[in-house]
Amino acid sequence: MQFLTSLVLFRTRHWVVLYFTAALLGALIGFFFLYPINEFVYYFEHERYRPDAANVIRYVTGELMNSLGGKTPMKTTFYAFVGACLGCITALLYTVMHRRWLQIQQLTHELDKDLEALIKQGENPHLEFKSSLRWDIVENRVNRALEGVVIKTLAGFMNGQGGTLLIGVSDEGEILGLKKDYQTLKKPGRDGYEQLIMTMIASNMGADICQFVRVVYHDLEGLDICRLIVLPSTRPVFIQQGNNPKLYLRTGGGTRELNVQEAMDYMKARWHK
């Protein structure tokens, strides 16, 4: 419970700081930029008998000084409020557009990589192989625990810098395919497989997290390989295990669970910017 409370406070503080800063800057712009422009336009519309530049500057400066002196509080409040709203809207648009741009850049970079060359590299901090999603090739049966391993790997990538998970490839780089996994589905094939993956992600990490995973299929040696391109998440990704949310991180060639203190420290460094 204490950890969840700390998480909520952490995320709330991050957004409060962001939008407070945007609102403050917007209010200043509203007062020192929008307000003078409006007075400038007003002058030319209603006081055309004094069109020279000196009178314009004198008029606008006088109105601005009156506001600073508290003589026109309604005007001051109005333009500060408008500026603050515009600042918050700008911050929101920038956050969304910047996030999309980063996702597109990483997705393009990953898709440019040749799959066979990628497999030859072997597993590394940004690349993981899984023989299957749910079919246990050792026990020759469906093993739901394998799904949990995949979910942890995805969460570790999202909480880090992203990465690629190849399903249907052994740890040694042998092409195994997805035939056995397909046979366990109500809707065998690529579509059913992708639906299962997205359902697993939504159920274990939240529906909003699905946007950080791209599913691509490849045909190698006549066998299907599922390539999951995982983008860095814009928020901490937890896996709910009972009443305890777990934070996993990709470190080296594996994925490990962070303890409470490690998780708090990492979240501050990773997302509190």
UniProtKB/TrEMBL annotation:
Taxon lineage: Bacteria, Pseudomonadati, Pseudomonadota, Gammaproteobacteria, Methylococcales
InterPro entries assigned: Schlafen_AlbA_2_dom, Schlafen_AlbA_2_dom_sf
Membrane-traversing stretches: 16-37, 78-97
Stored PANTHER family: GLPR-RELATED TRANSCRIPTIONAL REPRESSOR, SCHLAFEN ALBA-2 DOMAIN-CONTAINING PROTEIN
Entry superkingdom: Bacteria
Entry annotated with the keyword Ion transport: no
UniProt name for this protein: Divergent AAA domain family
UniProt KW keywords: Membrane, Transmembrane, Transmembrane helix
Residue ranges of every copy of the Schlafen AlbA-2 domain listed in the record: 123-259
Species for this entry: Methylotuvimicrobium alcaliphilum (strain DSM 19304 / NCIMB 14124 / VKM B-2133 / 20Z) (Methylomicrobium alcaliphilum)
Keyword Cell division: no
